[in-house]
Amino acid sequence: MITIKQIAEEANVSVASVSRYFNNKAVLSLKKQKAIADVVDKHGYVPNSIGRSLRMARSGKILILLPTMENPMYLRIITAIENECYQYGYTALVCDTHRNPHKERHLLSMLENHYADGAILFSSTLNGKELESLAKRYPIVLCCEQRPDAAVASVSIDDYAAAYEAVEHLLNMGHTRIAIALGSEVYGSTVFRREGYMDALKSRNISITADYILVGDYGYNSGMKCVEKLAKIKPMPTAVLCISDAVAIGAIKKCRELDIKMAVAGFDNTSITRVYMPSVTSVAQPRSLMGTTAMQLLHAMIMNPKEKHVKKILPHQLVVRESTLIC
Amino acid sequence: MITIKQIAEEANVSVASVSRYFNNKAVLSLKKQKAIADVVDKHGYVPNSIGRSLRMARSGKILILLPTMENPMYLRIITAIENECYQYGYTALVCDTHRNPHKERHLLSMLENHYADGAILFSSTLNGKELESLAKRYPIVLCCEQRPDAAVASVSIDDYAAAYEAVEHLLNMGHTRIAIALGSEVYGSTVFRREGYMDALKSRNISITADYILVGDYGYNSGMKCVEKLAKIKPMPTAVLCISDAVAIGAIKKCRELDIKMAVAGFDNTSITRVYMPSVTSVAQPRSLMGTTAMQLLHAMIMNPKEKHVKKILPHQLVVRESTLIC
Fold it and tell me: Per CATH, the architecture of A159-284 is what?
């Protein structure tokens, strides 16, 4: 296998630059980063994280904890985390908590045993106090959700603003009876999006109809059930904002089955939204940037345990497609 | 946290039964398994794998290596592996090889360091010889693909028979010009499915048209490109069998855009096939059973390194839906 010295020669940079590339590449010029990346990719070089971890008393492993493996929204983010890990020489270990706090704690015990150097948590099932206590002892970054109640680093969009904007779009399309299909209140994203939904309606002096606020999960079936319920309410809503693209697609499918016209918007802008017929309006989260940012925050905390707990808010974007235009 | 003794009391079984439950539950009656599972679930009990690994010189960790995190087909299988791991007291660590053999080898080096006890490989990028050599030293199970050229344990469907049956269905619907959209030849599934496709056509004395055999990847875009190519061929095929459901959906979408009628079938029977409009004919793989079986084989090999390399073939099922009925 090629050595760091050979990489430096072939990329025409110093050995120190190659070392920085793997430890803190942001300090290098983009030109140098690219020159080194080309040589690293060409030879499939993988930094020797075991040697590194012996020198640095670290394992070179990162935990990524998910509440489920079956949410397509997470996958692009994880790919971005993975790519970032590879650059720094970490190995990413993805684990499923099954939304079980016992299991989540058990997995996090790998941090105690120096089995892993830090963790990125997606939709943690732990409460703010427990997270804060963990974050005092170990490098931890929350991804996709922030916890205003706890001093924990996080990367997310502004879920309040994103839902507000999506509801404004539906209002601008002439809808006044607008429903929302949410997830469990355990998740911060649901709490913030509900607030954004309510405030957008209030801004146009539309009163809130409790029956229009539904709670389910993130899958197709939940969207189908949601429309079944809405179809029985009088007056029936003419539009619904859904917590995920899968819920939106389930809703559209059920509307077709029941021969109902309803504008439907989703969240996450997963790739199915473009190929579904009709194509689906959705709020895009910058998934690659979220993953890269989460890993950069985590790496900074591993390198410097005194690093502050930053709460990064990244930009979202409403992508309007057929599902809210044809109604 | 509750102890094994307390679990035994509450489930009204012996301590030995609880121990067997976590080490080899198949020897217990289903009634006992259920009684113990109920108590374990109620208290969220997690076996102390660190204590176990000290006693048994094992880490209590299992590697699951994927070529990409973005294939929905794998996710249900992994959930099943996870559930099985939880019963035996293992922690599953999912890692992404990015289809890079260098990275795959680097990840597998965790077996050398006793960082993990065994590995389940999805679509390995290593050749048969290398896999066989690894399998001599460590517990390894291939999932979703078999390698007839190597003595390695595996769990898969019969890809040849599955493709043969799907093509027979298209023939029975009156199609004679049938195309196929495959993945790279690196993957055994592509090689076997192409053979099944060709033999099904030959069985009806239909000659093979080289232009009807396309190679791409597993995503929506690949399906769209596939139909773009097929649309330019004269005579144009009237049906296409696709290597994945995402490719099938991309193909259907492009047919609609180009106003072409073509019967389309996919592979894997992922949940989108039911909610897409039209719903999509697909070959179902028994994903939960595949995951459970892979983990049971791996556990047996970890417990007994002399265990044989079993190649399990599990039943598939063609699920016929609108996408091959409406043309």
Answer: 3-Layer(aba) Sandwich (3.40)
φ, ψ dihedrals at B311, nearest 5°: -110, 100
Burial grade of A261 (CB within 10 A; 0-12, 13-18, 19 or more): exposed
Share of chain A above pLDDT 70, in %: 96
Q: B144: alpha, beta or left, given left = phi > 0 and alpha = psi -120 to 50? A: left
pLDDT digits (tens, 9 = 90+) for A9-66: 999 999 888 888 877 777 788 888 889 988 887 887 766 654 454 445 678 899 999 9
* B187 has a pLDDT exceeding 60: yes
Torsion sign over Cα A9, A10, A14, A20: negative
Instruction: Kindly list the residues from chain B whose CB atom is less than 8 angstroms away from the CB atom of residue A106.
Output: 46, 91
B96 contacts on A by Cβ (under 8 Å): 78-79, 82, 92, 94
Q: Per-domain residue ranges for chain B? A: 46-157+287-314, 159-284
The answer to whether domain A46-157+287-314 and domain A159-284 are alike in fold is yes
Closest chain B C-alpha to A69 CA, distance in angstroms: 6
Identify which of A76, A219, A271 has the shortest CB distance to residue B220.
Answer: A271
B46-157+287-314: CATH topology is: Rossmann fold (3.40.50)
Arithmetic mean of pLDDT, B196-215:
97
Q: Do B79 and A69 touch (CB under 8 A)?
A: yes
The Cα of A280 is separated from the nearest Cα of chain B by a number of Å equal to 12
Is A256 touching B (CB cutoff 8 A)? yes
Instruction: Write the ipTM.
Output: 0.77
Query: A140 pLDDT exceeds 80?
Result: yes
